[in-house]
Design goal:
Elements (H helix, E strand, L loop, with lengths): L3 E7 L3 H13 L5 E4 L6 H4 L10 H4 L17 H14 L4 E2 L2 E8 L7 E7 L4 E12 L19 E2 L10 E5 L3 H10 L4 E5 L10 H13 L4 E4 L4 E5 L3 E4 L4 E2 L4 E4 L8 H5 L4 E2 L2 E2 L12 E3 L7 E2 L4 E2 L9 H19 L7 H28 L5
The protein binds flavin-adenine dinucleotide.
The site of flavin-adenine dinucleotide has 32 residues, from α1, α2 and β4.
Length: 376
């Protein structure tokens, strides 16, 4: 069955649902579809009992219930899932769950540019839809950054697991996930924390107090190795560090060194990358015309720290979304009425022209006065 949509949204995280809402608000009759390979808000559901770092002020999307929710409140994942579920209901956003976008193939037909292969996870069957515009909102959480040593041991993981009790753990990384790991697990486990730099990531003021209190109260459970990297992991559950220290009797190593944009889908469709991040133009269009990146997948490469910059929910990035909507709309008009398209820059030039005229005439007046020997 062939289906044509004006816009296909891949992924149903917080940024994707906001994109759907705003796109529909801009053009009510537009045929837009969202696919998620799991449930909506899939990545938030993986760690439901974790308190977030942002306050509701930064997490709210446009909703009639906002006024009743305290801006300074820091939610648990599970609470935030309920809030975004309410947003989905309020704005009647239809999400096609358990539908994984497997491939996007460029076409040369008149009405559509891309053929999108979607796998129905439950039925284990594939179907196709067609669209000119695609918003990739797949997030970054499945694309873990990896160490360049052998980490293929059953006691070594790139995932977080906050259920450990009475274990000897090694934690690698100094970012937000590592901080969550310490907050949740230090009271119940011995942890050796290995950080490449001389400190961990800045902690938001609202979490700093709890974090400091946890470190103080359970200091006997923690050993921090700053400016250090793992050089080797051994079968006997030991590791060797770059500062020559050896850690023995490890139950589990968790390597939480961040994420990047290099998803299987984006690699398959040959989108261009800049280091580990997508190459995007000023309107967040990828190197493939009509395919945009939105949400945490928009992340840019941080040259100074050699890693992708953090890109979070931030109220569903309304400014970036505006640019994408304007660009999609511009393309649409150019397609059916190229000669009637008004470039906003033309308007701007029109506005500038009178002042240019004044400037020229003042100059001319000066010149004429000079010629006539008059004082200006
Ligand atoms: C414990 C925890 C605490 C956090 N704390 C904060 C915080 O304080 N502040 C903050 O702003 N952020 C926080 N984050 C990060 C937050 O989850 C992200 O900022 C946010 O989810 C990004 O939203 P997104 O819509 O860009 O992508 P995601 O939420 O990552 O959504 C991507 C979606 O795409 C789907 N998908 C992927 N590939 C495909 C495919 N091929 N086909 C179909 N669907 C696909 C996934 O199933 C997923 O549902 C936290 C995350 C966790 C887990």
């Amino acid at each position: 069955m062939e289906k044509y949509y004006e816009i296909v949204i891949v992924g149903a995280g917080p940024n994707a649902i906001n994109a759907y809402y705003k796109l529909k608000e801009f053009n009510k009759s537009a045929k837009i579809v969202i696919f998620d390979k799991g449930n909506s808000l899939n990545n938030l559901r993986n760690l439901p009992e974790v308190r977030w770092h942002s306050t509701m002020k930064e997490l709210k999307l446009e909703s009639s219930i906002n006024a009743q929710i305290d801006d300074s409140y820091i939610p648990m994942s599970s609470e935030l899932i309920r809030y975004y579920e309410e947003f989905i209901k309020e704005h009647q956003i239809m999400i096609n769950e358990f539908q994984e976008v497997k491939n996007i193939i460029a076409q040369n037909k008149e009405n559509y540019n891309y053929k999108i292969e979607v796998k129905d996870i439950k039925k284990q069957s594939n179907h196709f839809v067609f669209s000119k515009n695609i918003l990739i909102c797949t997030g970054i959480y499945e694309n873990k950054r990896k160490l360049d040593i052998n980490t293929a041991f059953d006691f070594c993981s790139y995932e977080s697991n906050l259920s450990h009790r009475n274990k000897n753990l090694v934690l690698v990384g100094g970012g937000g996930s590592a901080i969550d790991f310490i907050l949740n697990l230090l009271p119940h486990n011995k942890i050796t924390w290995i950080i490449k730099r001389d400190t961990w990531k800045n902690i938001r003021p609202n979490l700093e107090k709890t974090f400091k209190k946890t470190l103080e109260e359970f200091s006997s459970n923690l050993k921090v190795e700053f400016n250090t990297e793992i050089k080797q992991i051994n079968n006997d559950r030991s590791i060797i560090l770059s500062n020559k220290k050896r850690i023995l009797n490890i139950d589990k190593i968790h390597i939480l060194i961040g994420h990047n944009s290099k998803s299987e889908l984006l690699k398959k469709i040959e989108a261009e990358f800049n280091n580990e991040c997508l190459n995007l133009d000023k309107n967040f269009q990828t190197s493939l015309k009509g395919i945009y990146a939105f949400g945490s997948i928009m992340s840019k490469w941080d040259l100074e720290n050699n890693k992708p910059l953090d890109f979070f929910v931030e109220n569903g990035h309304p400014q970036e979304l505006k640019k994408i909507i304007r660009d999609i709309n511009k393309q649409k008009i150019l397609d059916f009425m190229p000669n009637a398209y008004i470039n906003p820059k033309v308007d701007l030039q029109k506005k500038l022209k009178p002042s240019l005229k004044i400037r020229i005439s003042t100059k001319a007046k000066h010149f004429i006065k000079k010629l006539l020997g008059l004082k200006s």
